[in-house]
Amino acid sequence: MEQDFYFEESNPRKTKLVIFGLILLFIIAVVCYFLVRNKYTLNIKRNLKFEVGSVLSTDIRDYVNNKVLDENDYSLILSSVQQEDGILTKTGEYSFKIKYKNVTKTGHLKVIDTVAPKVEVAELTVGIGEDFDGDDFIVSCEDYSKPCKVDYVDANDAGPYKEEGTYNFQISISDNASNVVKKDVTLIVKKDYNSNVQKEKDLKADHIIPNFDDWDNEMIIKFEKGYDPNSIDDTDAYSKLMEVSGEDLHKYIDPLYVNNLITDSQIIEVYNKYGLVIGYAIRVKLDNGLVLYCQNN
Description:
single chain; alpha+beta; 17 strands
C-alpha cells in the first residue's frame, strides 16, 4: 500500500514570535546576571589615578565598579599608600585591598603629579662680573616632586654681566615629574657690590641637616654670619661647638630632666637659603623616650 508523505506548511508569524521570545529571554538573563553580579560580587576599578597633594579618598565608590548598597559592607585597606594626615605625599604605584563580605581582592592605583611647582621669586643684586645661579632668584618652591630645577629660558641670560644696569629675563622651574612653570625675574648689577657678603648676612634658617620634623628652630650656637660648610671646621665657630658638645648636655636642657640619662645626641647643621651654615642645634634623646633640643639657659 503506497503511503503519501507531506510537509506541514510553516507559519512565519509563529516562527518570528519564537525567535523574539528567545531574544527577550536572553536579554532578561543578561540583565539579571549583571544585576546579581553588581549586588553580590566585588569588582575593583582599573587604571585608578590620584593627584599627589590631594586628599586620599576613602569613598569605596572611587575604587569599585559594582553598585554599593551599604558602605559598611566594605573594608578599604590603603596602608601602603604614601600619605600624611590624609594628603597624598609621594608619586608612585601602590596596592590596596578591599574586603567585601567573605571576599578580599587587591587593587592597584597610581599617584601622579601633573601640577607645576608653586614658586615665589625675588630680584637679585650682584656685582659686575660676579657669578650667580638661577636658584638665587628663588624665595620658595613648593612641590611634591622635588627637587625644583632652575634653568634660564635663554642661556645667554646666565651672565656674568660686565656692565651696571637692570636686566629682566625669564627662568623656568621644573620638578621631577617634568612639570614646568616660568617666572619673570629682575637682575640688578652694581659696581663695587659683593653678593657673597650679603649671603653671609642672611641668618634666617632655611633647612637643617640631618632633617628632623620636630626641630623648633632652637640653636645652641648662633653665628653672626654664614659660613661655607666646606671650610667651617677651621673656624672659631666650630671650635665653640666642639666645646659645647663635649660638656654635660644636661646643663643645656630643662632642669626637670636632670636625673634622666641622655641616651643619644646629634649635632644638626642649620643652613640659610644660600647653603651657608648659620648655626648648630643639638638634639638629645632621654631614657624615657623624650626628645629635647639644647638651649642656652
